[in-house]
Design goal:
Distance between the termini: 41 Å
Order of helices and strands: EEEEHHEHH
Strand order of the largest sheet: 1-2-3-4-5
Shape: globular
Number of domains: 2
Number of strands: 5
Amino acid sequence: MTAGIASSVPHRKPLSMYIGAERRFFGVSGWSEGIEVITGATPDLAEVVQAGAAWGGGAGLREMRAQLPFLHFSERAEAYEHGPATVVELQWRTMPEQAAQAPDFP
């Protein structure tokens, strides 16, 4: 079963919440313009409500994780939060590492 917690921030989709089937846990997933920017799971429904309020109110990713340690985000998601130029800079910075790990990297 899934549900969404609405966001008042224009580019953020509702925070998706899903319920574990075999044990008590609540997962969340936050998307913005086609990028999953935050995710996490907790057995505490109150934490999910807090995450929804923070997400819907426009809190930053680091701020959300500081308040709710069950939440996770990637370096790319954090770069996205700072704008397209930051994402491009991250891609250029990490490209040599990607190339070293994949011999057929373009």
